[in-house]
Amino acid sequence: MSDHPSTLAHHFDDLEQQRAASSLGMWLFLVTEIMFFGGLFCGYTVYRWMYPGAFAASSHELDIWLGAFNTAVLLGSSLTMALGVYSAQMGRRKALIAFLLLTMLLGSVFLGIKYVEYGHKFHEHLVPGAHFEFAGPFEREAQIFFSFYFAMTGMHALHMVIGLGLLTALVVMALRGSFSREYYTPVDMIGLYWHFVDIVWIFLFPLLYLIDRHK
Amino acid sequence: MSEHIVSVRTYIVIFLALLALTFVTTEIAFVDLGPLNIVVALVIALCKAALVVLFFMHVRWSRPIVWLNVLAGLMWLVILLGLILTDFLSRDWIAPPRGF
């Protein structure tokens, strides 16, 4: 048993097979996540098809530059996450911890900007419900858009918060020296999760912020 | 087949491409392309997603079974959206019979 690494579970032949099994399992989970967000995107598609004018008018209430800046911030956090995985592969513990913290910082900036945007919506009475106000002919239908806006960005933000929790756990594990060049699977898997959440935003940005902006 | 290590240079190039595409999609939203606006926006989003999946998520160097997973996820999403749309997009094509 001396040739059996401590990070290798006994039911795998070698680390390579263990790594392959982990990434397959993670991808399977991400496919269920695609379908989970797919339901929201599907509902969005149907209602945008039914009320194109209301969706365009409501979309113009969103701050396109905050949205674009947030997209850049999130893409940056994906870069630092990828570089974190790279540092783990190279066995550079300090760089790994630095990149994980940087990813968390950028993720927090994203959530901070989202918080400011949500605040504006509350002040402008754009939150669906009894106090919703929307000038023009679309007051009823605009509530549908903003329901999707809050459901989709809210569900995305929840995934970000969970991601920040997972990253915190990774930092603790890295500080304890749990990772090595041979074993860094948790970093790799949570990296996949983080990139997935980034992809959801890549679609949310044009679908929510960029409807008929030329009008 | 050991884990493929992607170079830092590649990551940075992909990141810059993603930023450029974000800029393009934001600017082009202000240009009137008629019904093509949504098409362009979605094509750019798909390109960005493909870059993230292939490079940041390493799928380009992954085993066929991972490819199969990614494509299966996409296929089910297309079924979900596609079948819903066949209903909603075609509702006005045929007028309801008289008396309804």
Tell me the total number of β-strands of chain A: 0
Residue-averaged pLDDT of chain A, rounded? 95
What oligomerization state is this entry in? Answer: heterodimer
Fraction of helical residues of chain B:
55-70%
- Within the CATH hierarchy, at the fold level, what is the topology of chain A? Four Helix Bundle (Hemerythrin (Met), subunit A)
Average pLDDT level of chain B = 92
**Largest interface: chains, residues each:** A-B, 50 and 49 residues
Alpha-beta classification of chain B:
mainly alpha
The CATH homology group name of chain A: Cytochrome c oxidase, subunit III, four-helix bundle
Characteristic terms for this protein:
heterodimer; A: 215 residues; mainly alpha; Four Helix Bundle (Hemerythrin (Met), subunit A); 6 helices; 0% strand; B: 100 residues; flat
Explained architecture:
The complex is a heterodimer of chains A (215) and B (100). Chain A is an all-alpha fold. Chain A has one domain: Cytochrome c oxidase, subunit III, four-helix bundle (Four Helix Bundle (Hemerythrin (Met), subunit A)). Chain A has six helices and no strands. The N and C termini of chain A lie far apart (70 Å). Chain B has one domain (8-89). Helices cover 68% and strands 0% of the residues of chain B. In chain B, helix 1 (8-28) runs antiparallel to helix 2. The model of chain B has no long low-confidence stretch (mean pLDDT 92). Chains A and B meet through helix 1, helix 3 and helix 6 of A and helix 1, helix 2 and helix 3 of B.
